[in-house]
Amino acid sequence: MQFSRFGSRLGGNTGIVQLMDDLGDALRTNPNMIFMGGGNPARIPEMEFAFTEALKKALADPQESHHLLGVYQPPQGDVDVLDALAQMLNDEYGWPLSRKNIALSNGSQSAFFVLFNMFAGEFDQGVKKQIKFPLAPEYLGYNDLGLGENFFSASRPKIELLEKGFFKYRIDFSQLHLSANTGAICVSRPTNPTGNVLSDEELHQLNEIAVAQRIPLMVDGAYGTPFPNILFTDIKPHWNENTILVLSLSKMGLPGVRTGIVIATEEVIETFARANTIHNLASGNLGPTIARHLLKNKQILKLSRDLVAPFYKSKMEAAVQIFKQALGDLPYRLHRPEGAIFLWFWFKDLPISSEELYQRLKARGVLVISGHHFFAALEEDWRHSHECIRVTYCQDAQVIAKGAAIIAEEVKKAFVQG
Ligand SMILES: Cc1ncc(COP(=O)(O)O)c(C=O)c1O
Question: Which pLDDT belongs to residue 417?
């Protein structure tokens, strides 16, 4: 059968599909695999309780249960949820939002598909525009969302070496070359894969550049403020009329309900909602129904601040200690974990590629992600991009310790024997 360009592009061997297939195969062939690869959030019993209570209440009320199961919502999503979100964000941060500034989607991944293709790709008079990542590494799930060639471009970061074996990426503004062909800037904050959190100053500078260029600044808050708030550093939430803030319920513990939230100007939201209607008809009701309950008395904020953030902070601290012990005096650096659910290791001058390290670890029953996937938008090959791995710390400490010991053995072997 012959597929169109669209069919071939999306149905082809895209990086993310290969990676997910590979992870899936590895788990099928070895069910005891130590899984430090994916982006699944951890199970937090108190959060699961809050979600179940919300659902029980919804199902117990015939009117609400009909609203949940038997109704298509309007293009932007459930109006009560939009109102409650706008009210909460305005109260907390003094933003000037109304329901017209918010749209719901079936997961933030699908929201990015629409948003990226709204601002980059083909324009009139043969003009082609790109989405710019001001700092690579950046979320690998963006890689294949653009319907066109050379859809993304990225800039190398500055690497700041910190005490005690840590390092941090910073945007290298001297290398951030935007042109008339840049359609939007996009950052994840906190960043998947590194756990980096762009400082308020960096975001402020990006905002000024975007405003001057008359292009939007997209901020992916999948791990950020106000929920799930997986942040270990103090930052100011950011939104203005030039910003498209994208949130998600996934990392609070609801990846299965597929709910994303887009906050932008009325014009952007209107266009987004129309496009979303074309490819989804309506967004699902399960996530918004849970959210409606959790938005009452701002419970969603309390849970994020009092439960989710401390849960991940203590997991992160334990994982850092475990890895420090396991890796000992091997030549490695760890990105300072400032948020999200990952540790990002840099093995400078590693004699093998991170992909080879990934393969060797997989053969030993440990799944991580090779760092090079997160640099796909960089034009040039950069050795550093083959020296890093991403590890999740959502598992129990014993599992992390087992994984860390095997990672340490393989890294040592690579440095000694190649
Ligand atoms: C940075 C980032 N953005 C967006 C997403 C997409 O999340 P979802 O579609 O579940 O909202 C993910 C998922 O891992 C992510 O890590």
Answer: 94
